[in-house]
């Protein structure tokens, strides 16, 4: 997050990001015609259904994670702030063949997301945080940036 906020972007050269995009495109090829990408300026939603106000987030992971739900809740927060009424979210795991609804509980979730944003702002105010353990970094697009030259 800190590196991304400082405009050090690694997504364009990341094989992991490319793999995720490929899974989204090949698993759901009809979506490009049916739904649209939505660029919110500070976030980009891959698939958005404007009729039902539903965010569809496709994950290449073979396990469900709290971070996935948090990402969708952040998107729902942004949409609500932009005036979208009753935003909804869906997480899709093609490898697991699972679809999970992500509920948005207006005020409660708004408070949670705003707390996350405050915590993120505190991190961004400081200097670059220390690296996480390598085991937590292997699937990150910044892995080579952080760990090149180290064993």
UniProtKB/TrEMBL annotation:
InterPro entries: Dna2/Cas4_DUF83, PDDEXK-like_dom_sf. Residues 1-148 form the DUF83 domain. Pfam families: Cas_Cas4. PANTHER family: CRISPR-ASSOCIATED EXONUCLEASE CAS4. This is CRISPR-associated protein Cas4.
